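Dissemination and training. As part of the outreach component of the grant, students in the summer workshop were shown how a complex can be specified as a set of sequence lines and then modelled as a single object. The example used during the hands-on session is reproduced here so that future cohorts can follow it. Participants entered these lines:
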Amino acid sequence: MRRPFLLRGIRPYGAGDPVDLLVRDGVIAELGTGLDGTGAEVLDGGGLVALPGLVDLHAHLREPGREDAETIATGSAAAALGGYTAVFAMANTDPVADTAVVVEHVYRRGREVGLVDVHPVGAVSSGLRGERLAELGAMAASVAAVRMFSDDGMCVHDSLLMRRALEYTRGLGGVIAQHAEDPRLTAGAQAHEGEIAARLGLAGWPAAAEESIVARDCLLARDAAAALHVCHVSTAGTVEVLRWAKERGIRVSAEVTPHHLLLTDERLAGYDPVNKVNPPLRTAADTRALRAALAEGIVDCVATDHAPHAAQDKDCEWSAARPGMLGLQTALSVVMATMVRPGLLDWRGVARVMSERPARIGGATEQGRPIAVGQPATVVLVDPDATWTVRGATLASLADNTPYEGMELPGRVVATLLRGEITTEDGKVQR
Amino acid sequence: MRHLLTTAGLRRETVTALLDTAEALKQALLGRQVRKLPTLRGRTVVTLFYESSTRTRASFEIAGKWMSADVVNVPAGGSSVAKGESLRDTALTLTAMGADCVVIRHPASGAAHRLAGWVPTHVVNAGDGTHQHPTQALLDAATLRERLGTLNGRTVTIVGDVLHSRVARSNIELLITLGARVHLVAPPTLLPWGVQNWGSGPHREEWEEHSRPVTVGHDLDAALPGTDAVMMLRVQAERMHGGFFPSTREYSVSYGLTEARLGLLPEHAVVLHPGPMRRGMEIAHSVADSPRAVITDQVRNGVHVRMAVLYHLLAAQEEQA
Amino acid sequence: MSSPAGTGAVGGTEPPRQRELLAAGEVARIVARMAHQVIEHTAPEPVMLVGIPTRGVPLALRLADRICEFGGTRPDVGILDVTLYRDDLRRRPTRPLRTTELPARGLDDALVVLVDDVLYSGRTVAAALDALREYGRPRAVQLAVLIDRGHRELPIRADYVGKNLPTSRDEEVGVLLVETDGTDAVVIRRSRR
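and obtained this result:
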């Protein structure tokens, strides 16, 4: 049994005067000023901001199948260093996570590593082929207790299949997370369909390819009275569709990636494929709309779409490169830069969009809980005044395809706790 | 100049210097018994063509050889590339072997830019995907200069599949830099997004009075009487299968340069084509052979222009990269 | 660019930066004398004057005029840009090319007289000889220069010299001509290099 320990002088949700937090048996036992630390390990919180542990609804951990780019172990380390205590691992592995066997493997491996709660996401369709439903029930009933299903990487573009998937998951209490991309409109697409891509000779990915699928799926969710989650919203138009849907009481939630809050298609100029991602980086107007939507709640949460790639898949010409960017270790800093510093979101808001809402949407009941007595001691301590320079080679991921290479970003995760266990401290993994 | 990757951002002085050099080289070779200049002796130029192209590759080869450079052609259909060697590795290998300059044609937009970042040699873009083909635009400009004099204030009409054309992109940028107006005629499905905004904006210092040097239309007959030159682009048959236009017949009726349309052009106007031509599709057989068509001039100027490019890249003191 | 004798430096007792050695009238007299020499040594064979840009060209034209005036027939005049044949291209930024225009009848069996303003190391003339080879096979090639300033680095000598001018290596000799510089003069200045 671990000794209790005391976090001295922390500021929950960045508000109010510093307080002390006593952890015993993985739970917040006491919260107040001047707590007695006898018999406890003491960690000086130094007035740091304390948030509930971050929850990422969308990450690619690449195991099984592409362990040269990332493993559950290295991905968990990156997540914990980024302040995350739970990660939803997408199903487009090799083999695809479309059976109880694969999801249970991912779940168990996550437990073994023990740095974050790894929640496997189950595929919607067998083999991600978009032809017939995968065994959603078996995956839900498995040890992994899958609640979120997604073909991410691919779009469930067949309307009938999407409708069936929504209806079926209603019975399971689950949610379908859609990668909204009409494949007919994006065949051969390389970058956001706009002036910059046109000049650079990069085939365009029209905004309507995302928006039309989101609109269709909202209507299908309405009819099925089912829960829909929209992955990586990237356009202002999608925000408007979501607003329309939510006004009508449709059960739709949505996520935005940190890179879609910060980066635009201006980054295309050097043809560096580190900037190649699906959905693509859009215009400044889109980033502004997404930031406002996140602040307002039309977009519910931030999800990283962490997508590690081996060097040879990025160190090539644009059209040959695989799309995707790292995100777990830089997400909080990017949210600070784009939302907190400009005053669009306070720390309560960060807790909402990076922990509470994602935990509810994904059904991770032990996560996203209030920092209060009796709750699991699953928190992250953040130094809001520190800055750091991003270097892909020193990040915990095996891959180093970060678009923020060389950028100075605000905020540093000082410590991460998962049910009372310190998983990272001072930028080092503790297990 | 370290590389020639794109005509976008080339300064007017640079373009003029290149065209003047091409002209001087043409003069230097006239009436000679030995068509050879010693200037690039001992320099090695490698052409790395991932798309087959007899004419452009041969043009670069002749250009290099007439300057006494050693020219090596690496066809990418051959061995190591077919074995899956990456572009980067191929380029590094060639550089290690001693190439001073790589002339690259590749199906991916941006390939030349990426190459320039990987290797210390000079890089000439001979066509990257749908992005740019700068030497084509330079030889088109040289040909237009020959026939029309200055390009300042002239109107050049480009007709056809602008969307997929690197020749069009290079030409649009270059013509605007030289002070011309560009009018694009194409079905709406074959125009790039936002192309009517190209050339305008605070960074284009050549254009103060006219804010829109690029205009767009779909009526070829209406465009011809007011133009000083018409450039017909190739149309690839596979575009039809992409649903960009319904049939070759409909395309050539609306956008083909027929004998009748030739008659709509002003007396002095010329017809250009980057080749190879599909006679009967975008250009009528008789039009291709008419004295107004300067296609063979384009090809001839192509060699001199490429010689000029190689001269500017390779003859002088190495710039600090 | 005119040629004031006098101080070029600001506020100092430095020696004058540029000195005029020959004034306009003297240049004209020298050219006339050279024309007589060419006629004397070549008549009755017709000559072809080939000027090396930049200033070799107006000099060649002037010589042709004088030869015509004194000798009756005007020689053909051509222009030969030697930039592409220089051996020092890699030491400088890109040099712009000049025109090359040679008479239609070609160089074969012609008596070519290369014309340049200053003869120094001899490398420009060596480049010109390389260039000429590629246009044909002259019967003979001679060299006419306005100024020979010594310091040859190659075994090159001029057949017709307007004036011999001993100089040191840290000096520059400038020939100014009305056609290119607005005035006729020969000046000497301290080299910046």
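The radius of gyration of chain B is 19 Å. Students were then asked to discuss how this feature might be tested experimentally.
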